[in-house]
Amino acid sequence: MTHDTVGTGDLFEGDEPAWLPVEGGLVHKVRPEGVLLGEYVSEDAASLCARVVPRSPGCGDDRMGSGVDVLVLVEVFGQLTILAGHVLFDVAPDAAFVMDRLAVRLAPEREFAGRGVVERARLRVLEVEYRGSRLHRLSVAVDFLDEAGGEVASGDGCLRLLPRGVYQRLRGTRAGVSSADLPRSSSSGGPLELRLLGRGRRGGTWEVGFDPQDRFFFDHPVDHVPGMLLVHVMREAAMRSVGAGAVCTRVAVEFVRYLELDEPVFVRVRQASRTDFVGTVSLSVVVVGANRREAAAGTIDLRTPKVGAV
User: Fold this and answer.
1) What CA–CA distance (Å, rounded) separates 102 from 71?
2) Does the pTM of the predicted model rise above 0.85?
3) Among 59, 123, 147, 221, who pairs with 48 as Cys (CB 3.0-4.6 Å)?
4) What whole-number distance in Å separates Cα of residue 124 and Cα of residue 142?
5) Distance between CA atoms of 109 and 113, rounded to whole angstroms?
6) Are 40 and 1 a contacting pair, CB within 8 Å?
7) Nearest CA-CA partner of 304 in 282, 276, 270, 279
8) pLDDT per residue as tens digits for the range 208-241
9) What's the confidence (pLDDT) of residue 301?
10) Residue 270 burial (CB count, 10 A)
């Protein structure tokens, strides 16, 4: 096992290289409208820049929203990291990318209004870990930039890369389970349903139902609950805890284990800090499944002009 810290220079110091199209397979998407990266370019072995596909209501899936939404940036972060694995390190197309942790935060001047448009996302490789000759772990940082090159948001994270055979052995019989074969657990008719089970002075608990046929969260059949769905319900539960008008300014999540498709899903929210002088509150959010086993845990920061009791 070896670790390497990767240094990078400024991107595009000389003539800008040719931009290449991002095909769905490079970001593990089947539906073209699910691909949030338009073109990419890499200058060296540790830097990658991609143009972000603009999203607006009526264009693709409305849930991708418009302007700056932390949830959208989390998805861009994931796709850009997968792209880097394939383009910079020649990872096999069928390899499994397992996100261990990620954090995305809006730049301070963008936090309250949540306005702006992300034009490009730039990834820098911070550290790599090999097992023998195979890339095993990748740590990256991403800057989300507007048209003028100003920082809209930033993120960092770490993921493991598993050959298909290793992943199948790790998952055992679960590797044969498919979301395409499961019934809907959301009774509302929508892709997600959060049912409040109880609320305390400093938090609450929600039961989560979802539609495994939903094309937004389940672009293709999978054998576990997607991490993007977990991030979404964590943010949604946090927003409901605070009340209307809140803006999510930071998401930091650690993925503890695979959440199986047939497990019950619950989200617990607790206030982690008091509201500060600019109206930001940090909430501790945990996703648990069967036997109350944690699947994901993290912190959601929200800003609102008037923060209610949590």
Assistant:
1) 12
2) yes
3) 123
4) 6
5) 9
6) no
7) 279
8) 999 998 888 999 999 999 999 999 999 999 999 8
9) 94
10) 15
